[in-house]
Amino acid sequence: METPVLNPTASHPLWQHQLGLLLESTGEGIFGIDLDGHCMFINRAGAQMLGHEARDVIGSNMHELTHHSHPDGSHYADTDCPIFNAFRRGLPCRIDTEVFWRRDRTAFAVEYSSHPIMDGAQVRGAVITFVDITERRRHAEALQQAKDELGLRVQERTRELSDALVQLRELSAWLDKVREDERTRIAREVHDELGSLLVALKMDVNWIGKRLGEQQERTPDAAQSMRDQMRCKCGNMSQLIERAVDNVGRIITDLRPSILDHQGLWAALEWQAHEFVQSAEMELDWRFDVPAGVELPEPAAIAVFRIFQEMLSNVGRHAKARSLDIRIGVEQQQLSISVRDDGVGAPAQAFEAATSYGVLGMRERARHFGGRIDIESRVGEGSTFRLHLPIPLPLPVPLPVLDA
After folding, report:
1. What's the rounded Cα separation, in Å, for the pair 384 and 321?
2. Contact at 8 Å (CB) between 377 and 345?
3. How far apart are the C-alpha atoms of 4 and 259, rounded to whole Å?
4. Alpha carbons 291 and 329: distance in angstroms, whole number
C-alpha cells in the first residue's frame, strides 16, 4: 500500500509509517495543517476528492487551494473560515453547509470536522476530516421535495374531501327538502282531492240514511220517488268512489309505478318516456336495443329508473325543447341510456355547480352501482345525458348431481 505523503520535517520513520497506514484505511478525506494553514499531510482519498495528487498538495495553503469561495462563487476570506478560527482558539468544529473546490474549479458539497493538534496547552495545527455529501444532499433534497409534494397532495386531498363533505351535506339537505316537498304535495293531494271526495261521500251517505228513516212516513208514490232519488244519489256516489280510486292509483304511481314491479325496468322506462312526452307535448324518437333476458337486480333497476326520471325532469324544467331522442342499449355487459333534447342547452359548468343537486343525485346513484353520468351541452344546441352502468353477469346454473 502506498503511504501518504507527509511533511518532510516529520523525522520518526515508525510514526510516519503507522500514520500512513491509519490514513489510508479510511475512505474519508483527511489532511493536517499547521498554524499558517499549510498542508502537512493528506491521505489518498482526500487528495482524489480534491482532484490532486497527494504529493502536490503538501505545503499548499489548504484554504486557498480548496476553501477559497462560497457555494455561489463569492470570495471566502480565511479570517471567516471556521477551520482556521476553530483551531486558532483550540476548539473543534463540524460544518455541513459549505463546499470544497476541486482542481478543475468545480465544487462539491462537503461535511468537514476540524480538531486542533495540541502540544500541551499550545495549538500546533489542526486535523481536518471531510466527506463528499453531494449524493446525501441530493437525496435529502429529493426527500424534502417528495415531502413537500406529499404535503401539497395531502392539503389538496383534504380540501377536496372538505368540499365533498360540504357538497354531501348540501345534497343531503336538498334531498330532505325534496322529500318534504313530496310529502307536502302528497298531503295536499290527499286533502284537496281525496278529502273532498270523502266528505262528499259522507254527506251522501248521511242524506241516504236520513231519507231511509223517513220512508215509512211517506205515501207509496212519495216513497217510490224517494227511491229513485236515492238510486241517483248512489250513482253519484259510485262516480265519486271511482274518482277516489283513480286518485289513489295516480298517487301510488307517482311514488312507485306498479309497472316497474309487474313488467320490469324496460317497460317502465318506455312507459315513463311516453307519459313524459305526452304531458310535455314533445316529439319522441325512441330506440330500444336490449337483448331478451337481460335484467338488472332490483336495487340497480330502481336506481336506473330514478336516474331516467331525473333526466326527463331536467328536460322538462330547463330545456324548452320540442323533441326528445332516447336511446337504450346494452353492449359488452354495459347498459347505456342516452337522453338528448333540442332545447336551449347550458354551459358545461352549469352541470358541475355545487348547487346542481339533481345532477349530483344522479351521479351518486350511478356511482353506487359502478356507473357514471356523462353530460354534453352547449348553449343553443340542446343537451345530452348519458348513463353508463355495468350489468352483472348472471350466476351460472349449477348442474344436477348424478348418482353414480
Report:
1. 12
2. yes
3. 98
4. 8
Q: Single out the residue of 341, 328, 337, 358 nearest to residue 283, CA to CA.
A: 341
Cβ atoms of residues 20 and 44 within 8 Å: no
DSSP strand E in 350-403: where?
Answer: 372-377, 383-390
Instruction: Give the predicted TM-score (pTM) of the model.
Output: 0.48
What is the full per-residue pLDDT of the chain (404 aa) written as tens digits?
A: 333 444 444 445 555 566 667 667 678 999 999 988 999 989 999 999 999 998 999 999 999 999 999 999 999 998 888 888 777 777 888 999 999 999 999 999 999 999 988 887 788 889 999 999 999 999 999 999 999 999 999 999 988 888 878 877 777 777 777 777 777 777 777 767 777 778 788 888 888 887 777 777 777 878 788 888 888 888 888 888 888 887 777 777 666 677 777 788 999 899 989 989 998 889 999 999 988 888 888 888 888 998 998 899 889 888 889 999 999 999 888 999 999 999 998 888 888 776 777 888 888 889 888 999 999 998 888 999 999 999 876 544 454 555 54
Question: Measuring CA to CA, how many Å separate 40 from each of 6, 25, 59, 332?
Answer: 6, 18, 6, 81
Instruction: State the alpha helices, DSSP H only, in 315-402.
Output: 357-368
Query: For residue 351, which amino acid is it?
Result: F
